[in-house]
């Protein structure tokens, strides 16, 4: 089963934006909250979906090539 941010939210009892901020190292998250969320992320082995991150504007190592005969 692929984990999502919603799974982390449910375990930590925080908002989606807080989990997102932890994943993106935003300084607006308190140290205690960051540690709690990061602990759950590490325990579950959560990996952000790279395709979703690419759609949000984050850089991605994926290259697409389109060619026409």
TrEMBL record:
Stored PROSITE patterns: HTH_LACI_2
Highest taxon of the lineage: Bacteria
Keywords from the named record: DNA-binding, Transcription, Transcription regulation
Domain (HTH lacI-type): residue spans on this chain: 3-57
Coiled coil: none
Signal peptide: none
Cited Gene3D superfamilies: lambda repressor-like DNA-binding domains
GO molecular function, one term: DNA-binding transcription factor activity
Entry annotated with the keyword Repressor: no
Name the record gives this protein: Transcriptional regulator, LacI family
């Amino acid at each position: 089963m692929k984990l999502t941010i919603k799974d982390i939210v449910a375990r930590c009892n925080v908002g989606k934006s807080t989990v997102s901020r932890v994943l993106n190292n935003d300084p607006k998250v308190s140290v205690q909250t960051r540690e709690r969320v990061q602990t759950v992320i590490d325990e579950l082995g959560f990996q952000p979906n790279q395709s979703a991150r690419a759609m949000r504007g984050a850089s991605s190592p994926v290259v697409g090539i389109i060619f026409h005969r």
